[in-house]
Amino acid sequence: MVTRTTTINDPVGIHARPAAQFAQAVAASGCTVTIAKQGGNPVPAGSILSVMGLGIKQGDAVEINVEGDNADAVADSLVATLTAAE
């Protein structure tokens, strides 16, 4: 398992559009991925509603855990997807 931590800088946090883009990237990766606010309970990252349900706001640190083939590259790509949506 590979873990990445990033801080959300988008002033409105993770709302519908970035959550959808992130969930689509997770589904396309073929890996098992969870996302959580740092120190919180992880949820399936492929579910838009689960990601939005975390209530991630600007300044929150999130942890992304990836299991599967090419997990390092997938984790880096998913972090880039989250930060590009900002």
From TrEMBL:
Keywords: Cytoplasm, Phosphotransferase system. Its main location: cytoplasm. PROSITE patterns: PROKAR_LIPOPROTEIN (PS51257), PTS_HPR_DOM (PS51350), PTS_HPR_HIS (PS00369). GO terms for cellular component: cytoplasm. One of its GO terms (biological process) is phosphoenolpyruvate-dependent sugar phosphotransferase system. This is Phosphocarrier protein HPr. Pfam families: PTS-HPr (PF00381). Residues 1-86 form the HPr domain. InterPro entries: HPr, HPr-like, HPr-like_sf, PTS_HPr_His_P_site. General (non sugar-specific) component of the phosphoenolpyruvate-dependent sugar phosphotransferase system (sugar PTS). This major carbohydrate active-transport system catalyzes the phosphorylation of incoming sugar substrates concomitantly with their translocation across the cell membrane. The phosphoryl group from phosphoenolpyruvate (PEP) is transferred to the phosphoryl carrier protein HPr by enzyme I. Phospho-HPr then transfers it to the PTS EIIA domain. It is found in: Cytoplasm.
